[in-house]
Specification:
Helix content: 25-40%
Strand content: 25-35%
Largest sheet: 4 strands, antiparallel
Structural class: alpha+beta
Shape: globular
Number of helices: 2
Radius of gyration: 14 Å
Strand order of the largest sheet: 3-1-2-4
Order of helices and strands: HEEHEE
Distance between the termini: 32 Å
Length: 83
């Protein structure tokens, strides 16, 4: 992540902490066996979010994406396979 992009990400995350007391993200992941999953997560600190991100990218077999969302935009968890 570029420095400007990281600073913008952290600003958005910290704004959420200030407004809601938590950071909300939606995530989507794919693995090499055709499995797709996603859902939402929330974090009480920037450190907690970065730890989750590090762990999630460690176990991901394929593309993994997440983005910060407003609390009302959290997505339901899903799992499906297309083999």
């Amino acid at each position: 992540m570029e420095k400007i992009e990281q600073l913008n990400f952290e600003r958005k995350a910290l704004n959420q902490l200030d407004a809601y007391g938590e950071i909300y993200v939606n995530y989507d992941s794919s693995d090499c066996d055709g499995g797709h999953s996603g859902g939402s997560a929330s974090f009480k600190s920037l450190d907690e979010l970065y730890k989750w991100w590090d762990d999630a990218t460690e176990w991901a077999d394929g593309p993994f994406h997440f983005h910060i969302v407003e609390p009302q935009d959290k997505q339901e968890s899903y799992l499906y396979f297309n083999r």
